[in-house]
Design goal:
Length: 237
């Protein structure tokens, strides 16, 4: 991955520092209405990696996945908590996780997806157990028991942005892709739009932004042919 600079800051070096959990004024009354977007307001915890909120960062990294594969059987591992992208989102569950740790109740391994990006340590997106992971990190633990169910191989250099349209690049061909399934088949540009915050985060990861003065053009038939070649080469590797 190329070194990305923003305001004189080496972005990759910031990201390698791992996750920090910042305290902000919280509103526990949000209760069950809390979600990824409202989570920091509900819990009073704002989890960041570099300058990015961890859930936004995880979405950006996954939007540069060139392949995704299940880990069968799931891999049991002790993973570094500073690279676990865990944002607590519900105050009641956060309190429950604190009580479980205080009372030494047996806890299951957290369920995660492993995100691999050149130039960065392995990152982990939490599927189950985000509150448990946060409490362990906040208590000073270095690692946590995890079950790795999925592997994402991510490559920001394989993508570009035309305005708010995410595109894959290979063999001199560009085509729109879904930010939710970027490894999948080429799609029409309408389904490849990204939000402004995701756009900025993708560029910080090293995704190129093309001049919007040029018209957006692509050939889906040609793109599908290149996509098939890439899939075939990956299967043989």
């Amino acid at each position: 991955m190329e070194r990305t600079q923003a305001m004189g800051i080496d972005m990759m070096e910031c990201l390698r520092g791992g996750v920090s959990d910042l305290r902000i004024p919280g509103h526990p009354e949000l209760g069950e209405r809390a979600n990824e977007m409202a989570g920091p307001d509900a819990t009073g915890i704002f989890s960041v990696i570099g300058p990015f909120q961890v859930d936004l960062f995880a979405r950006a990294v996954c939007a540069t996945a060139v392949s995704r594969g299940s880990v069968a059987p799931p891999e049991a591992a002790a993973i570094e908590l500073r690279y676990v992208l865990a944002q607590p989102v519900r105050f009641d569950r956060l309190v429950g996780a604190v009580r479980d740790r205080r009372d030494a109740r047996n806890s299951l391994p957290v369920k995660v997806q492993r995100l691999t990006v050149a130039g960065l340590p392995a990152l982990y997106q939490v599927i189950e157990g985000r509150h448990q992971a946060f409490v362990a990190r906040d208590a000073g633990d270095n690692t946590i028991a995890a079950r790795i169910d999925m592997d994402y191989r991510c490559d920001p250099s394989a993508f570009c942005l035309h305005g708010d349209t995410l595109m894959r690049e290979a063999e001199g061909v560009r085509w729109p892709v879904s930010p939710l399934r970027p490894w999948d088949l080429p799609i029409e540009a309408a389904g490849a739009a990204v939000t402004p915050d995701l756009n900025y985060t993708l560029q910080a990861l090293g995704v190129r932004s093309l001049p919007v003065s040029s018209a957006l053009s692509y050939d889906l038939n040609l793109a599908r042919a290149v996509h098939r070649e890439l899939a075939s080469a990956a299967d043989k590797a």
